[in-house]
Each structure stands twice: as C-alpha cells, then as structure tokens.
Amino acid sequence: MQPIKILIINGPNLNLLGVREKNVYGSLTLEEINNKVKNFQYGYEVSIDFFQSNNEGEIITTIGESMYKYSGIIINPAAYSHYSIAILDAIRSVNIPTVEVHLSNIYKREEYRRKSVTAEGCIGVITGFGYFGYIMSVNAIINYIIEGSSF
C-alpha cells in the first residue's frame, strides 16, 4: 500500500495559537500541534503536509490544487467555517475525503459559532478535543480510505 497523503489546512488566526485565548484554544502553538500530529504513530505509512492562511482565497486555491496530490484533507476553517460558501464549494469540487476539525467545542460556544456551513462538504466533524482532534481526524481519513465510505 502506498503512503496515505494528507493535507492539513488551518484557517485564520490559528497562527496565533499559544498566544490567543489560551483558555479556549490551549497553550500549544500551531507548530507544536503540527509536530504532535506528524510524529504520532498511526499504524500506516502516512505523509502529512501543513498549510495555514488568514486569507480565504489562499485556502480555496490550496484546496483546488490538492486534487490528485492528496488522499485526504483535514481542515480547520476557523471563523470561515461559519459563513464561507466558497470554501464549502472548493471542498465539494475536489472530491477528496475531508474532515473538519475544531480545537474547541463549537457547540459550547457562542450561538454564531454553532453552525458550520463548510461541514456540509465533509465526511465528518471532530470538535472539542484540542490538538488531539487533528490526530483523530487523521485516523478517520485513514479508516475512510482503508474501509471505504462505509462508516
């Protein structure tokens, strides 16, 4: 079996992790989270690339360019998850299994954070488990690829 290639996309303000609202997002930086995700032992050969942008257009372009390069996408669209139809359309367009992840439990937060329009294009959403949600998302993608779409 060839390595499973996964792209992890992080949206706006996630480059400020470790500094911003530690009571909500924890004290780990994005680089520390990426290292934990990359160094986790998944039981399969997994190649993971990371991308972060504060710009919606760059995220959309990156999703579009992922076609034929990646087996799966994990995305934390951050604030864009609540209103970006453009990111939703990009996710749907590439037809790559995508998992949405959030560090905090969006359902325990403000009302406007409880709806994710981008989740409609994803095979699932993992929310509220901090950095470990990314590891859970990688495992979900692996299971989806190996077992097929029979969740």
Automatic annotation (TrEMBL):
Pathway: Metabolic intermediate biosynthesis; chorismate biosynthesis; chorismate from D-erythrose 4-phosphate and phosphoenolpyruvate: step 3/7. Substrate binds at residues 76, 82, 89, 103-104, 113. It catalyses: 3-dehydroquinate = 3-dehydroshikimate + H2O. The active site is at 25 (proton acceptor), 102 (proton donor). CDD domains: DHQase_II (cd00466). It is an enzyme of class 4 (lyase). The keyword Coiled coil does not apply. The chain crosses the membrane at residues 122-146. Its EC number is 4.2.1.10. PROSITE patterns: DEHYDROQUINASE_II (PS01029). Pfam families: DHquinase_II (PF01220). The keyword tRNA processing does not apply. The record marks 20 as: Transition state stabilizer. InterPro entries: DHquinase_II (IPR001874), DHquinase_II_CS (IPR018509), DHquinase_II_sf (IPR036441). Homododecamer. Belongs to the type-II 3-dehydroquinase family. This is 3-dehydroquinate dehydratase.
